[in-house]
Each structure stands twice: as C-alpha cells, then as structure tokens.
Amino acid sequence: MKGRLALKLAFFVAVVASPIASSPQGSRPRGGVVSLPTERTETIPSPDGAWALIAGPISERTIILENLSDHKQTLVKEYERSVQVGWSPDSRAFFVNDAYVSNLEDAFVYWIDSKKPLLLNDAIRGRDKEADMFPADHAYFQVGRWLSAHEVLVEYCGHGGENPAQQFDFVYAVSFAGPDESKVRIHRVSRTVRPLNLSAPDCKF
C-alpha cells in the first residue's frame, strides 16, 4: 500500500514539474513548408524566432511579415488561389510558391530587409535555354526546400499541348546573394522529358 502510494506521489510530482509547451492558436512549428490558406489565421515563425509570417484565412488570402520585437507588420503578398511558404535556415529570407491559376505557378524568394522579391521563373529561364523554349501550357515553378541559407532546390515541371505533346520535369539547385537576378547561379540536377500521360503527375514536389 505504501509502495503504491509512493509511486502515485512520484508520478504526480513528475507531471507537475514537467514544462508544458503552449502555442498560440494557429501557430506553426519552426521550419518546413506550409501550404496556405487554411480555415484560420496561421502564424509561421522564423527559425530564430525574431520574425513571423502571418497568413490570413481562406476569406483573406494575405501574407504579412511581422517583426516580433516591435510587432511592425508589412504586407508581403495578396494571392488568388493557394501558396506554399518556407523560411530560410538563417531567417533572412523565405520562399513563396504561388499557384495563382490551375495551370501556372510562380516561385519567389523574399528577404526581410528588401521589398523586391526574386522571381525564380525568370532566373531559370534566362539561364536554361531549353527550359525557356519548351512549349508548355501547364507550367509550374516551385521551391521544394532550402539547401542552405543562400540556395534552394527548384522544380520546373508541366506539359505542353503541341504535337507531339510532352511532359517535362527539370530540377535545379539555385543559389543567390539577394534579389539581384544578375548574381543568380543555377545548376540543373535532373531532366525528364516524356510523352504526355495525363494520368501521371507533372511534378515530383
């Protein structure tokens, strides 16, 4: 009896002493890719905890950057359909994949200290002539993940309706030092081109 009582008491003390992590409604863990919108406002903190992306619900479809030290907010983007966002490891930048219509998607990188984003579509097409000339009425640019604080893995995929119709999938490592497109470097990691199969997905990411 005494042993059973002592065990219950020990369990009670352990539970009371253990810290319980709490997070505001709609907050997200740091890191990873977040798909938006959702039914509620989402808070997506930077890895260092100094910044947050505030994403409005379905009825608003906005992304706001907030400095968590002084709570100053800046509107980053209003969007039409759906987006994905993800912070860089050093908390200085974040990407936005914007699927603004059903057959097109743009990929951007934003910096916390610049109002000018880098449009990865233009950076890739301007450096890969095959990708630029590929006929596509369904074209999707999307960042899959950060490779480092200054490099992302990007997929350009889709299909064209011209005869012969083809599906394509190009994957790149894209490095940069900021929003200046002239300093962008790309390395094509893989290339897949095949006859169009509408039952097969265009993209891997």
* Mean of residue pLDDT values: 87
Please write the string of helix (H) and strand (E) elements. Answer: HEEEEEEEEEHHEEEE
| Alpha-beta classification | mainly beta
Number of DSSP E strands: 13
Helical stretch tally: 3
The largest sheet is:
9 strands, mixed
Distance between the termini: 59 Å
Percent in helix: 10-25%
Strand percentage, roughly? 35-45%
Structure description:
A hairpin with a 6-residue loop joins β8 (104-111) and β9. The protein is built from 3 helices and 13 strands. The protein is globular, with a radius of gyration of 22 Å. 13% of the residues lie in helices and 44% in strands. With 205 residues, it is mainly β.
Question: Could you give the topology of this structure?
Answer:
Elements: H1 2-17, E1 34-36, E2 42-45, E3 51-55, E4 62-67, E5 73-78, E6 82-87, E7 93-101, E8 104-111, E9 118-119, H2 120-125, H3 129-133, E10 138-148, E11 151-160, E12 166-175, E13 185-195
Parallel strand pairs: 8-10
Antiparallel strand pairs: 1-6, 2-3, 3-4, 4-5, 6-7, 7-8, 8-9, 10-11, 11-12, 12-13
